[in-house]
Design a protein that fits this description.
- The protein is α+β, with helices and mostly antiparallel strands.
- The protein has a domain at about 45-115.
- The chain has two helices and eight strands, in the order ββαβββββαβ.
- The chain has a four-stranded mixed β-sheet. A two-stranded antiparallel sheet has the order 1-2. Strands 4-5 form a two-stranded antiparallel sheet.
- β4 and β5 (about 60-70) form a beta hairpin.
Length: about 120
């Protein structure tokens, strides 16, 4: 349906996109978490902060799908990556829950959910 003049587009999860440091975030909560992680990185509590890392699900050479997380980073003395996704109750869909399980099964990674 076309948007009327002066109306903002309807958003599925009522989120408001925000741009910070030249990066476009899907919500204010995601932008806030980015600010927190940047401070933690600056203080040396985390390293190698990545935004929207993509993970592919492949089995026997067949691509099944993919998942794009909000953030991935490391703790200074740990080789295990931490993958975070900023979630509201409305955005915890069946599709997300399936991808969360696939992340564990295919990559051995538990997604850390942040509200």
């Amino acid at each position: 349906m076309p948007q009327r003049l002066g109306q903002s587009p309807h958003r599925k999860y009522r989120n408001q996109p925000v741009t910070v440091d030249g990066y476009k975030f899907a919500s204010k909560a995601e932008a806030r978490r980015y600010g927190e992680l940047r401070l933690l990185e600056f203080a040396g509590h985390i390293i190698n902060l990545e935004l929207q890392p993509k993970f592919v699900f492949e089995f026997q050479g067949v691509r099944i799908g993919s998942y794009k997380a909000d953030f991935r980073y490391l703790l200074p003395h740990s080789p295990t990556p931490i993958v975070e996704d900023v979630k509201s109750p409305a955005s915890k869909t069946q599709a997300y829950e399936l991808r969360k399980k696939m992340m564990k099964a295919f990559h051995g990674i538990e997604i850390r959910e942040v509200t």
